[in-house]
Specification:
The chain is elongated, with a radius of gyration of 26 Å. The chain has 125 residues and is mainly α. The relative contact order is 0.05. It is 73% helix and 0% strand. It contains five helices and no strands. It has one domain. Its EC number is 3.6.3.44. It comes from Rosa chinensis. GO terms for molecular function: hydrolase activity. This is Putative xenobiotic-transporting ATPase. Keywords: Hydrolase, Membrane, Transmembrane, Transmembrane helix.
């Protein structure tokens, strides 16, 4: 990172990949596995990927699932804390019925937007 910050990187600055990790080797291996899989009555892309990439494909999927569940549960936990603080703030004051209806509507909109964002990854509006 320090070198890239000091000057633009060139081809000489980047190390060579091992032959088993180069795109050409992986592409050839995948093409062979996909051709073998295509001969079957019901070819599966996942089987061809597993055949060509092997354990790296399985480990990548495993870590993706673990990280997804960790961060989604962590984000859910922080959202619950934020909402409890918001409830505490809104209901710590003496408010009239009209104000509490507006507060409830605001909270409802926030919950709907957060749920949409956590499911789709983009804002609702």
């Amino acid at each position: 990172m320090k070198l890239g910050y000091q000057r633009p990187l060139t081809k000489k600055d980047i190390w060579k990949l091992d032959t088993w990790d180069q795109a050409e080797t992986l592409s050839n291996k995948f093409q062979k596995c996909w051709a073998d899989e295509n001969r079957k009555p019901k070819p599966w892309l996942l089987i061809a990927l597993n055949c060509s990439l092997g354990g790296r494909f399985c480990w990548g999927g495993f870590w993706k699932v673990i990280i997804f569940f960790f961060f989604s549960s962590f984000l859910l936990f922080t959202h619950l804390i934020q909402m409890s603080l918001l409830f505490f703030f809104l209901f710590s004051f003496h408010v009239s019925i009209i104000d509490s209806t507006i507060s409830t509507r605001i909270i409802h909109e926030l919950l709907v937007q957060r749920a949409h964002y956590s499911i789709h990854g983009s804002p609702l509006y």
